[in-house]
Amino acid sequence: MSFSELGLAPELLRAVADKGYDAPTPIQIQAIPAVLAGRDVLAGAQTGTGKTAGFVLPILQRLSADATRVAQRAPRALVLTPTRELAAQVAESARDYGKYVQLRIAQVFGGVNINPQIGTLRSGCDILVATPGRLLDLAQQRAADLSKIEVLVLDEADRMLDMGFIPDIRRIIKLLPSKRQNLLFSATYSDDIRALAERLLHDPLSIQVAPRNAPIELVEQRAYRVQKEQKRHLLVHLIQEGQWPQVLVFTRTKHGANRLTQQLEGAGIQAAAIHGNKSQAARVKALDMFKRGQVTALVATEVAARGLDIKELPQVVNYELPNVPEDYVHRIGRTGRAGAAGQAISLVSSDESGLLRDIERVLRRSIPIVQTPEFKITETAAQPAQQRNRSAPPSGRFGQHGGNSHGNRGRDGRDARRGSNAGARYQGQPQRGRSH
């Protein structure tokens, strides 16, 4: 099937062709005609399968077809997203697909000065892409008029649930016209999402183009067993020996992301961190440098698991496994996008065996544990002298799902625990909690 068979206008087909797409994805084939027909939609699709175009294209067509309302200032379509990065990505996609139609796209989110956003909204827009908190701030200041909304989109709705945005979303919905089209798009299709859909959607068309919580099949998954304090050395080895041009590395905490970034740079690898404590300008700069190839390793917390769209990203590394097993699916979904192959590698310490079991239970499959290669313990200022420039033998397997590992511990592990340096001791401490 071609995009022209979906009933899209010539201006949109031209923009799609400019992007280099010649055939719609399964989610687009089902969603675009339904949205054009005015139906409410509940869509569950794997990340990276083209969900954004699935709702942006028909919304652009619907709004551009109504010439009588083009001149109004208040937005007619509202897209709510959980993160700044996803809001920026959706707005960019809307501008790309809508470049041959006369529609105005605006984006608003926290972490930046609110005054320019107030000016943008007062100038008027047709499609508004927003994070919930900043939109409520703007509405309370009477800068955001939501009384003319014809289409509401909840993008990455499951992430909205995870991040506690549902009360904000309910407050926003009270500001919208009762008669409107509602579209709920989600990377996973949980029972909570179904419950939200029952309250929000009217006679929706349910679309699911992949098994529940299934990762993209093109992603090759594997895991290495390694001591916690030696993970960074193995990561350096993998990047250097594999000559990886780009790798997205996930940590559990903001502090851990900052520390690992410094350690990678100390090993001669260009790295940058992206997480919730970074300003929006710093996050945009880090992502831009990564996309341009000026940074090899982008170290991120869960905030980047949604919304990052990086063409042909070859590797994703779970430096630490996520506490929420579904987040693993979103993390590895950053690679293997748009038909390209990718690798997802997890570095698993002994205390993460339970997390690995939980992930495999969600996936309904085991993640292959492969032999850990020999790697050098490189010298850093924060390392005990006894541990420097020592080669680590391959880690033994803990067993498929747990137990103790002694394969990589030996004297190196004891030195790391006994070292007088506080930084070295901290490496051995468990890291708990989630960070957005």
Task: Please outline what is shown here.
With 436 residues, this protein is α/β, with parallel strands linked by helices. It is built from 16 helices and 15 strands.
- Characterize the overall form: globular
Strand content: 15-25%
Strand order of the largest sheet: 3-4-2-5-6-1-7
Count of strand segments: 15
**For the record, what is the CATH homologous superfamily label of the largest domain?**
P-loop containing nucleotide triphosphate hydrolases
- Helical fraction equals 25-40%
Structural class, please? alpha/beta
Provide the descriptors you would attach to this structure in a database record.
436 residues, globular, Rossmann fold, 2 domains, 6-stranded parallel β-sheet, alpha/beta
